[in-house]
Design goal:
Elements lengths: L12 H8 L3 H8 L6 H9 L14 H7 L1
């Protein structure tokens, strides 16, 4: 069985988990992605297309599109 490393970044995991309807472990994992607070967590979990970065900003995206 794989072992997961959960870092100890600070946040109120219990409150975030309760507010967002997720487990405290998931709240910790999301916090490890430098997402802080209830609103940012909700945006991460239930975001829409407008919340995503433009994929054309990735290096060599035009080249990848040409290959596809």
């Amino acid at each position: 069985m794989a072992k997961w490393m959960v870092y100890t970044k600070k946040a109120d995991f219990r409150a975030i988990a309760q507010e967002c309807g997720i487990s405290q472990v998931l709240a910790r994992l999301i916090r490890n992605r430098d997402i802080i607070g209830v609103e940012e967590t909700r945006r991460f979990l239930k975001g829409n297309l407008a919340d995503l970065h433009d994929p054309r900003l990735l290096p060599d995206m035009e080249k990848a599109v040409g290959i596809l």
